[in-house]
Amino acid sequence: MRTGICEIWAERDFGGVGDDSSLKQEGFGQDFSERGRDWLRIFGSKSVENLSWSLSGRATSLNVTGLDDGLLSPSVGDLSELRVLSLVGNMFSGEIPATVRNLRFLEVLELQGNNFSGRVPTQMSFAFLQSLKLVNLSGNAFSGSIVNEIIGYGSVKVVDLSNNQFSGVIPLNGTCDSLKHLKLSRNFLTGEIPSQIGKCRTLRTLLDRDDGGLNDGFRGEFNAFVGNIPHQVLLLPSLRVLWAPRANLGGRLPSG
Prior knowledge:
- Helices cover 7% and strands 23% of the residues.
- It is mostly beta strands.
- It folds into 2 domains: 1-7 and 10-58, no CATH class; 71-214 and 237-256, Leucine-rich repeat, LRR (right-handed beta-alpha superhelix).
- The N and C termini lie far apart (55 Å).
- InterPro entries: Leu-rich_rpt (IPR001611), LRR_dom_sf (IPR032675), PRK1-6/SRF4-like (IPR046959).
- This is LRR receptor-like serine/threonine-protein kinase FLS2.
């Protein structure tokens, strides 16, 4: 069994756990060995017994790595002050709970490199999480349609959904003012590349073939886009990467 690491950071440092009443009010005990059931409630993992904890004030950033098992239970919605939720490289499974809608201050969501599956809940849309800047769900087994109002809305700069089992078309209805990187490779997406992407004037990466840290030499591209590459996309001033080798796309790159 691997030894996991969990860090919980905050805006304010209480100078140690001790018997601080503020921490008690926030629901965090002084001895994490005695609070294991609380973290088991959130992560559903017996591996929490092997976690090394770091706590400083009110929880605004939660970083967990190295767990052999677990899930993300609805109790994660109780951590309503979180700005960063990073669960990279664990072996978590199951679905994302709808209670993520309670994380209204969340700016960074990193769930890559796990075994999450099922549909991404609609509660992960901009309608609920209006502070999101980065969403990375790559390297899991998510399926179904991509959630509306997650690509091109608000201040979202990075969306990485690569290496999953998403299907259907690319939903894009937002103003796309902030989006810089959109990674969708190794899914089962179909249809045309939406011309609305031409509104994403800051976009640097579209689709992308990055292997997400995999070392097996696999470079498959499963999407099956059709039609022409929209002229508006080809003229994006910041675009550096456009990768869709097996798509049935047409269109010419602009001269110069």
